[in-house]
Amino acid sequence: MAPKTLNFITGNANKLAEVQAILTSTPVQLKSQALDVVEIQGTIEEISRDKARRAVDEVKGPVLVEDTCLCFDAFDELPGPYVKWFLKALGVQQFHKLLAGFEDKSAQAGKIVEARGPTSFGWDACFEYEGQTYAEMPKAEKNQISHRGKALAKLVEWLSKEA
Ligand SMILES: O=c1[nH]c(=O)c2ncn([C@@H]3O[C@H](COP(=O)(O)OP(=O)(O)OP(=O)(O)O)[C@@H](O)[C@H]3O)c2[nH]1
Ligand SMILES: [Mg+2]
């Protein structure tokens, strides 16, 4: 596949660092722009499509945007795309208490636990996968198994078929 440059539009520096690390060994190169794009309410697909369109209007070129959901099984998939606001209101140390009244602590695809590890990125410290929270894992390990790693692997595969 020929090298391909996309404008990655995000207001989140942690996200940008992970996306760059994941794509570093692929033909996809990024130009990043620290823009906080307006996000509508809706399903993840509706929000992401709308976010991408708004980003294209700003950049007037090929863009990559990301919208991350954290879905609790006990909440019928909420907070989903609205997790950012729950996290902002509660902080990572209190976040697990949302599920205090529920036996089912599962979230896609892991478990919500009391915060462990560095708290520098979103809900990483509360999200446990196979005994470790994302925050306790080395970055390379998280990037191999994470939602972000999987989504970007699909993107690279799709782009290589397009070329
Ligand atoms: O611990 C985490 N590990 C992750 O891997 C991760 N990915 C996203 N998030 C958080 O989940 C919300 C998503 O909202 P979100 O997708 O709209 O992102 P954002 O608004 O921060 O950036 P962007 O929309 O400008 O790209 C925000 O609170 C992000 O901080 C993560 N937290
Ligand atoms: Mg956002």
TrEMBL record:
Q: Which reaction does it catalyse?
A: XTP + H2O = XMP + diphosphate + H(+); ITP + H2O = IMP + diphosphate + H(+); dITP + H2O = dIMP + diphosphate + H(+)
What cofactor does this chain's UniProt record say it requires? Mg(2+); Mn(2+)
Entry-linked Gene3D superfamilies: 3.90.950.10
**Keyword list, A-Z:** Cytoplasm, Hydrolase, Magnesium, Manganese, Metal-binding, Nucleotide metabolism, Nucleotide-binding, Nucleus
How and how many cofactors are bound, per the record note? Answer: Binds 1 divalent metal cation per subunit; can use either Mg(2+) or Mn(2+).
CDD domains attached to this UniProt entry: HAM1
Q: Which InterPro entries match?
A: ITPase, ITPase-like_fam, RdgB/HAM1
List the GO terms this entry assigns under cellular component, sorted alphabetically: cytoplasm; nucleus
Annotated residues for binding of Mg(2+): 39, 67
Q: What class of enzyme is it?
A: hydrolase
- Grouped into one coarse class, the protein's main location is cytoplasm
User: What domain of life does the native source organism fall in?
Assistant: Eukaryota
Q: Which GO terms describe its molecular function?
A: dITP diphosphatase activity; ITP diphosphatase activity; metal ion binding; nucleotide binding; XTP diphosphatase activity
Indicate where this protein resides in the cell. Cytoplasm; Nucleus
- Binding site residues for ITP: 10-15, 51, 67-68, 121-124, 142, 147-148
- Gene Ontology biological-process entries: deoxyribonucleoside triphosphate catabolic process; nucleotide metabolic process
EC no. given is 3.6.1.66
Family listed: Belongs to the HAM1 NTPase family.
Job description of the protein: Pyrophosphatase that hydrolyzes non-canonical purine nucleotides such as inosine triphosphate (ITP), deoxyinosine triphosphate (dITP) or xanthosine 5'-triphosphate (XTP) to their respective monophosphate derivatives. The enzyme does not distinguish between the deoxy- and ribose forms. Probably excludes non-canonical purines from RNA and DNA precursor pools, thus preventing their incorporation into RNA and DNA and avoiding chromosomal lesions.
* Subunit annotation: Homodimer.
What name is this protein filed under? Inosine triphosphate pyrophosphatase
Q: What is the lineage of its organism?
A: Eukaryota, Fungi, Dikarya, Ascomycota, Pezizomycotina
